[in-house]
Amino acid sequence: MPSRRRFLAHSSALGLGALGGCVDALGSDRPTYTTPGTDGPPPPPEHHAFGSDGQWSSPGFDASNTRWDYRGSAPRDDARVRWRYPVQEGRAPTVSNGQVFVSAPGELVVLDAMEGEELWTAPTEPSWVGVPLVRNATAYVPVETDLRALDAVTGEELWSRSADERFTPPATVGGEELVVGNGEYVRALDAETGEERRSRRLYGTVNAPALGTTRSPTTTTQAGEVYVLERDGTGVWRRTLRASIEAPVTLGRDYAYVTEVDDTLRALDHGGETVWRAEGVADFRFGVAYTDAYVYAVDGSTLHALDSDSGEEHWAHHLGERAGVPAVVDDTVYVGGDRLHALDPEGTGERFSVDLGGRVGPDVSAGDGALYVPVTDDEGTDLVALETA
C-alpha cells in the first residue's frame, strides 16, 4: 500500500458540485471498465452469471452480492430530489417492478417508486426487520427469528417460518429455492411453501449467503470461516481466515471476495486459496462492489479501486467523511459520506456530488432511473430518491 495520498480539496458549496482531478494515480495501466453485453434482453436469472433478475431486488443487487447494475440507469452528471420519505433506520431499500421495499423497526413499508407514496405496510410489532429479497412478485422478509413471504402487490402473508435464531436476508437463483443463514445453519427452503429442503450446520454464526449460476452456496461466518457447499448441502471446501467476518461475501467471475473485521480484503479462488490480499481497504461491516475490471471498497473516508484480478490499487478518492459501501450503476460509481458522490469508474474524476442535508449511507440502491439513499441528520433519517436533473 502507498504511504502517501493526494486528495482533492472538496467544494464547500451546498448542493451540486462538479469536482475533477479527485483521484490518486496509484497503479499503472488501469484496466478499462467494461460491462457484459447489453444488447437484447438480459438472460433469465438462472442463466445469468451473477443470478441477477435485472432489478435491485436483494440487498446486494443480485444473488452474488456484486452491487453492480450494469444495465441500469441513474443520475450520471447531476441529480435532483424526486421525493423524500421519513424512515426510522438508514439502510437502502430493495426495488422491484416499480416498488420500493423499505425495512424499518416494527414494519415493512412499500412505496411507489415514482411518487414516493405509501402503497402498503406490513406491521411486525417492535421487531428488527431485515432488507427483503423480492422475486416473482413475492417479498421474503427476515423478521428477527421469522422469515415471512408476502405478496409483493398486496402485502398478504403467504407463509411464515420460525426458528430459534435470527434469519439473514435470503438469496435465490431462479426464484425456486431460497438459501438463507439462520444462526449457525445454512438452510435451503422451498420458495413457495417455506418448507425446509435441507440444512447444514457450520462453525460460527452464518452471514448472508451468495449464489452464482451453479447455485452452490458460498457463505462466511463470524468465526472467520469461509464455506462453499454443494447444492445438496455437502461441503466443497472450507477455509479458516485470521479474523472474524461480518460482511456478506461477494462472488465475481473467478474469485470470492471476503472482508475481514481488520478491514482486510481477500480474493479466494475456486479452491479456497488466497489469490491476493489487500490490507486496510474495506470496511468490515458492508463488503464491496464488484465489476469485471475493478473491486470498489471503502475504508474510513477513502474509496479504493482495486484490480479485480490482482488486487493492485489503481486509484483512490477521499470522500470527506466516513462512508459506507459503494454501488455501480451503468458506468458510474456511487458512494455516500458527507455527500452523495458519483465517480467515473476508471478514476478520471468525480462527475458530481450533492449535499442532501445529512450523512448519506451506509449504502445505496437503484431502480426506475433513480438512486435511493438514506440521509441522516440530527432530527432523524429520510429515504431520498434522486433522479436526473
UniProtKB/TrEMBL annotation:
Stretches the record annotates as Disordered: 25-72
Biased composition (Polar residues): 54-67
Domain Pyrrolo-quinoline quinone repeat stretches: 80-205, 219-280, 301-383
Biased composition (Low complexity): 25-38
Listed SMART domains: PQQ
Transmembrane segments: none
Any Pfam family hit: PQQ_2
InterPro entries for this protein: PQQ_b-propeller_rpt (IPR018391), PQQ_rpt_dom (IPR002372), Quinoprotein_ADH-like_sf (IPR011047), TAT_signal (IPR006311), WD40/YVTN_repeat-like_dom_sf (IPR015943)
Protein name per UniProt: PQQ-binding-like beta-propeller repeat protein
Species annotation: Halomarina ordinaria
